[in-house]
Amino acid sequence: MINLGIIGTGMISRNFVATAEKTNEFKLTAVYSRTEERAKEFGEPFGAQNFFTDLNKFFESEVFSTIYIASPNDLHFQQKTSNFKS
Fold first, then answer.
1. Kind of pairing between the strands at 50-52 and 66-69
2. Neighbour count for residue 69 (Cβ, 10 Å)
3. Helices vs. strands in the chain: H and E counts, helices first
4. What is the reported pTM?
5. Where would one find coiled-coil regions in this protein (predicted)?
6. Within-domain flag for 50
7. CA gap 14, 20 in Å, rounded
8. What's the pLDDT score for residue 76?
């Protein structure tokens, strides 16, 4: 089972997670969003239990082994390079 962390909680993210979980090889374990309420609203239906509003804490959490970045395109570089700093 691959533990999945996700950045971004829009419709594309929802479709991605739903499809990934249908393979029975992925489990959503962590969600990053700008608000905790939105992170929980997105992740709880998929069984996620770890919600973050701090990107550094998200990357430091070690509750996932792969990440899907589904935020607006202009944020991808900044969010990915945060991982290198953590």
1. unpaired
2. 17
3. 4, 4
4. 0.83
5. none
6. yes
7. 10
8. 44
Residue 85 has pLDDT above 70, yes or no: no
Q: What's the pLDDT score for residue 4?
A: 97
Helix (H/G/I), strand (E/B), else coil: 25:
coil
**CATH number for the domain that contains residue 21:** 3.40.50.720
C-alpha span between 15 and 8 (Å, rounded): 12
| Separation of alpha carbons 46 and 75, rounded Å | 24
Q: How far apart are CA 77 and CA 71, in angstroms?
A: 10
- Is residue 17 one of the residues assigned to a domain? yes
Give the angle 79-75-2 at the CA atoms, nearest 5°: 50
Q: Check the CA dihedral 78-80-81-83 and report its sign.
A: positive
| pLDDT value at residue 61 | 94
Question: Is position 28 within any domain?
Answer: yes
Q: Which amino acid is at 34?
A: R
Residues in the chain: 86
